[in-house]
Design goal:
CATH architecture of the largest domain: Orthogonal Bundle
Distance between the termini: 34 Å
Structural class: alpha+beta
Largest sheet: 3 strands, antiparallel
CATH topology of the largest domain: Arc Repressor Mutant, subunit A
Order of helices and strands: HHEEHEHHEE
Helix content: 40-55%
Number of domains: 2
Length: 111
């Protein structure tokens, strides 16, 4: 069954710096996204656990930087590259967890 596909565990294990999913069709990736297991942003596929970690990191950064945090602070806090930090930050914005204001991200209504 689709919910037992090995790509799910692989993306979960990859955390906030996922590898490109292989051995699965785009249609199946989209089905897993509809089921709430994975999400895609800017061509990168993530397990939803990465979003939880990104949200917790954003919350911690806003505690120490109440005026907002930069993408580089977010990237460094997660220990990932810009390639993965940008789509994660964009997803947080899209879900209302953070909001982008100029060069920083501030708390959104759903944080």
């Amino acid at each position: 069954p689709l919910l037992q596909h090995p790509v799910i565990d692989r993306l979960r294990d990859d955390g906030c710096a996922p590898s490109t999913p292989t051995g699965i069709t785009n249609a199946d990736l989209r089905r897993l996204a509809k089921l709430g297991v994975l999400f895609e942003r800017d061509g990168e596929w993530f397990h939803v656990d990465a979003l939880t970690k990104a949200q917790n990191t954003a919350r911690e950064l806003l505690t120490s930087h109440p005026a907002g945090f930069t993408l580089s602070q977010f990237r460094d806090a997660l220990g990932i590259t810009r390639k993965h930090a940008v789509p994660l930050a964009t997803e947080l914005d899209a879900r209302g967890i953070t909001r982008r204001r100029d060069d920083v991200r501030i708390a959104g209504p759903r944080l």
